[in-house]
Amino acid sequence: MSYPELDWRVSFQEQVKSRKSLFEIALAPRKSVKSSKESKIAIDIVPAKSTIYKFMQNLIIRLREPFQLERILRYRGIKNEVLFELESNPQLISNKDFLPLEWFDDFEYDPMSAERWLSISNLEGFALIPDPGSEEWNWRKVTVVDYDQTNFFWTVMDNNERCEVPRVRLYLLYEDPGCFCERIASALNSRNDAENRLRFYYLRQLVDVEGYFDLPDEMSERISKKSSGDALVAFKFLYRKFHLMLALNSCLVQNEWLNIQPIPTKMEPIPRCIKDNIRDVYVFESTFATIKRITMLCHPAVVKALQQVHIECEKVKEKSLFALEFKEPVTLAEFKTVNVTQIVKTMQYLKNRWIEKTTMKVHQNLLETGRGWFDVSVKDWTIYRFMKLHRLIEQIKYRMQTALRDVVLTSTDRYFHQLCDPCSLALIVDEEFTWEDNLIDSPFDSGLRPVFYLLLEMGDDTPYYSTHPDEFEPCLEMLFEEAVANTHDVHIIDPSLLGSLIFDPVLFLSSVGLLDPVIQQRRDFLTLTYRKTIIPLKAYAARYLEFKELFFTNVADYVENVKLNKTSLQVKEEISFQIRMRESLERTLPFSIVIGSFWINVRPLRDALILKRQELTAALLKMLTERLCAKTSDIVSEYNDVNEKMCEKPISIEHIFEIRAFMETIPEQLQNLEERMKAVAFEYEILEFFRHALPDSDFYQKWQALAFPQNILKQMTTVSEFNEGEVDRFRKQQVSDEAEFGGKVEEINVYISKFTTLYDVAKVAEISIEVKKLWKTINELIQYGETLNKRQELFELNAIDLSNLFDLKESFVDYKNLWSLAAEYINVEESWQENPLSSLELESVSNSVAYYRTCFTNLMDSFEDQPQIKEVVKAFVERVEAFEPHLSVIKLLQHPLLQPIHWAQLAKAAGIKVKISLASNFQLFLEHRIELHLEVLRDLIQKAEEQKEESERIQAEQEEIWRKEQEYLRQREARRLQRTEI
Length: 982
What we know:
This protein is α+β, with helices and mostly antiparallel strands.
């Protein structure tokens, strides 16, 4: 392998000395490394041909570790920081670098080309790069993989991480470290000189006081007499610049704190051309003068202006009117928004920045030509049309129009192909196209990346897309036409360049028109393509119409219908059907599908349909579970009823016989319940078939129902034994109850015999209450005696005699009726007297009085043998008869014609001090002896009737008069209408 040659610009002795010093620096031990193996440097010696000179020429120091190169650089006074640290905002008095070092790298120090370096396999080196995860920069061992000839960057690999570094921060193995250090040192010196000059020129602009360094007037007059005005201007500029530099250099020498070095004022002599003697052989003056008059490129500034116009036009060619690079498919609205923004952005650049930059650069270059053919300050149109400037601007206009046309054609071509190429397979589709059964594979997927995003959804009527397919064609055509049409609004540079001339404000560069054959062909094909593409797009959506019923199925209604109309076996078939349909949906429906340039997202609809099938399945299983749970619960409830009724604690001997009778029916009931439970258990197997887990409560209830019959049969034996013991206990209790009953009968006989001697009318209320209690007690004793007789029969004992108790009840009936009627009548009479007159119904009161008189009269015969009680009956008969005259008084007082004035006159006649009316109670009138003033009451009623008759007569007369007036008015109106005179 050949090695790069040494730099022999220094003497042989200096090279040897330098290499020895580098060798010693590199071999110096590291403080952090104890072994000398890691710091060893190999010396490769290429065999010499003849002399020691050749041997030293091929002596190369090879470095093994990055720290060895870092030590050599430090030995040369080069720190790592100066290779990458830059000041982002440089200051005048700052000593920090602000220009990249790679700008000043001299590649002449590297005798090998990049291709030769890359030809070495596994080329390694040391690169100054930042450490991963930190901001520190260190020399690290890397592998070189590529070289960018445009930007002069080398691509290196460090721990599988790629990064680009300039050559000045990359040391290649087999490279002479001395040459590498010399190249870096030279670059540092060049950068320091450039930065110093920039700071010097900037300082010169700051201290340039107007008029202070100008040419003296006397010298200016002498020069103006001997030369032209342009020469005087140039000389003034050089004079001021020269003296300003002299002044600044002397200032910088005295003020070292500025960190700026003086700039030499002498200009380097221009080297003389080696072949100047050609002019002695050939005479170019006449030919050159002729060409210079004819050609437009007679001045370097013109060539430079055209070059810069070309550069700006080339930048324009890189622009695009459309934004077509999307990472993912986008909606039509997003596509429209992005492209409208892109069109506006590009047109702003074309209308403003492009024109401004082109005008500025042309103006800057033409200013150097001064007055003459390219004088941009020309003011006369006639002169301007004969100037080379006019031809130059026309040339620039044609160049800009070419760039503008290129932008339009390139942008529309990309737009056309980006949108139409994915739809190429849909061009053969006819209007009657229908989608086949396969919903997963698309026959219209061209393999190209789709542009638009659509979401397939289910509507109330039909399936639909998130963006209607018919919206794409007009939108895309609108964007196409708008982009092309906007390019006709780019102004020419003439008005902004030639400010002294007046131009029409609507002068624009010529672009490609909408009627251009290429543009028209692309637009028509774009329209045709999307008209064809939306046919399969709509056909695909129509295929999902068959899932509409499923999508809108109400789970609750569906389950309720199945619950009411289908048996458990039919429910099983329905569940199996739902599972098969769900699996079919998973197989036949895609997550997404591509149709032309459309990426259709079917996942939400697919998931919704599958979820609906799952919900129906789960709802059916839940319904079946609830149905079986309800059936099992009913059976368990009946088992519990049987068990509870059988295990009831008997409260009497009758209860024991009822339990015995019930226990005889238990085996038959258990057999019926077991048969029902077997049918339910068979239905439970349906849930097990679908591996549906029962809730813990349902599972426990199921097995409880299956085990209940055996538990009840075991309980029957225990209950029978318990009831046998209870029979003996109740027999003893029966004997005790019989003796107690006899005692109560004797007590009630004694109490009644004492009670029948009471005849005090004043104590009617108290006596009636006691009578009711006695009557209730007698009935209870009779009922209790009948119960005891039934138990006597069950115990096979003699019946108890109840005849004396029935005789006692029969003899007490009249006495009970007397005091009950007496108390009842007293209460009724008090209510008649205390209630308002308006609430008394005369007929009802009359019937009640007759009823009580009859009842009391009938009781007279029952107490013939008891004179004192008979007197009580007679007293109540007289009290009823005493109230009968009041009925006529109530009738008069309730007369409807009585007015407040009549009530006032009645109160005055009866001496009643309070205001009376129908709202007054009857007791008030009885207290004031109203029966003594009945004649007054009758007179008032008669007057009221007469007043009513008089008022009715007057009202009748008034109605007759009004009727006659109305008749007269109608007749007069009829006569007016029949008049014929004018």
